[in-house]
Amino acid sequence: GAVVSQHPSWVICKSGTSVKIECRSLDFQATTMFWYRQFPKQSLMLMATSNEGSKATYEQGVEKDKFLINHASLTLSTLTVTSAHPEDSSFYICSAKTGWLAKNIQYFGAGTRLSVL
Amino acid sequence: AQSVSQHNHHVILSEAASLELGCNYSYGGTVNLFWYVQYPGQHLQLLLKYFSGDPLVKGIKGFEAEFIKSKFSFNLRKPSVQWSDTAEYFCAAPQTTDSWGKLQFGAGTQVVVTP
Asked: What would the pLDDT profile of A15-33 be if each residue is shown by its tens digit?
């Protein structure tokens, strides 16, 4: 099946610094990638939708200036958490889909655990 | 917009017991429905999906789900669980018919299978 690689799997940073998370589709071209946030024992919350070559679309309540998303190629999307604070500590998950023929099937990365001290 | 509700947040059962997890969705148009599983420490994996046709869908690892349009339900079942089925299970559906790709997830059900 399709593989999505997410890196790093765990990052610890100081408050005020920025962290970049990468999401790569390894064996397919991802026209659309999604970024989710998952709080402990809760469901996935969609943060933004990223289409290759265009600006990301953010869900209501998600600060676009804090969570910068870049989808520069059909195999790579990045999420940068800028000026991270302890409340940004969470589990961030990306997913990718190949196109309209994929009929909404998303392939998920393993997630990145962000801890902000 | 779509809402997806899962009836049980936490299920504990013994090996060989039967499992049924409830899922209801709210949007009544043409729907695609999914069950994803997240094993401890691993990424979400697609268990099964429904797009159209036979409402009884078979997935991986012996799981199946039944789409009942009149009840807006898509319940997941497995006749006999194993310890390795311990995981969190998420039901999902597209947010709206034109939200192509955006999924609404249920809150998840933590399933613990005891030996």
From this structure: 999 999 999 999 888 888 9
